[in-house]
Amino acid sequence: MPERIALIQAHPDPAGGHLCHALARAYADGALRAGREVRVIDVAQLDFPLLRSQKDWLEGEVPASLRPAQETLRWAQHLVFFFPLWLGDMPALLKGFLEQIARRGFAFEPVEGNPLGRKLLTGRSARVIVTMGMPAQVYRWYFRAHSVKSLERNILGFVGIGPIHETLIGGVDGLGEAGVRRWLDEMAERGAAGG
Length: 195
Prior knowledge:
The protein is α/β, with parallel strands linked by helices. The protein is built from seven helices and seven strands. Helix 1 (19-33) runs parallel beside helix 7.
């Protein structure tokens, strides 16, 4: 059971106050009450440029503002991502963040003769928590949860993170107070369980 948990708050609104923020707080509260250590990376509070070329990704330096985030990911045994589904995918800010930090030497290392290289973030599990306006079943079954699967397989799994679980929270505009409370309680329970 993981004792060191990193919460990656990836709602792009730096003002906070969204369901993703409340879910992350509930998760953190549950984890802390259970005696776990929690660190939070709030992506919207970080200042970093987007990568614009392969050369930037291969030869550029990770911005100093993101080095503490890399250290938190290295420290953690379990990662929990919170973000809203925007245009059927993760917000661009989260994608830009992941492109900056998941560089060779930190997340993976090229190995001659092995096109996948060596995964450097093994030994960590993850949970991906996504809020959305559409019903979660529609996203899962009609759209095949394609963007979450891409994050899990092509980014997290590629660098060795696993197992990866997901929580899809649909119909957020119609949850009401009782529905929000149920999800907050579930997040606190998941935090306490470390999963």
